[in-house]
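Comment thread on ticket #2218

A.B. wrote:
> Attaching the input chain for the structure job we discussed in standup.
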Amino acid sequence: MKFVHWLVLGCVVALPLSASAQWQWVDKNGKKVFSDQAPPPDVPEKNILRRVGPPPVSRANPNVDASPAEGATAEAGAPAKTAGTPKPTGVDKELEEKTKKAEAEEKAKRAAEEAKVAKAKADNCALARQGKATVDSGIRIAKVNAQGEREIMDDAARAAEQKRLQTVINSDCK
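C.D. wrote:
> Ran it. Output below, let me know if you need it in another format.
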């Protein structure tokens, strides 16, 4: 019976060890990080001190990873990949599609905004040309002032209005 007690005690003591961090790496500040999740992708391979599972296959020898369908010949004795096995690219196709869709939506949004701005400029151009033609015609032009009284434009006001309309035409009519 004493053996069973020691066995239970040993299991209780060893239980927290199974929950220990499985990844260990040195971050960009030089601190050691312990975690149960993989380090971020910006951590270089040389800074990973401990990992879950075997270390990744080195990409130094291109003949080992290249398939015969790609035109590379495998060394004698090196196992050749089967032609039907797809080569993992490390890119999630759904993520890639979502990214392309988001980029297309952003591009469409930008195009719609540019079209809206172009339409506003065209409208401003048309109104400015119409106003300039009215001012240049020499007919009397009356405006309502802040008190609600009607005032006829004098030569100085007409010249200032012509100048203002010309700057609008120069900026919006291109």
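A.B. wrote:
> Thanks. Noting for the ticket: Confidence is low (pLDDT under 50) at residues 64-78.
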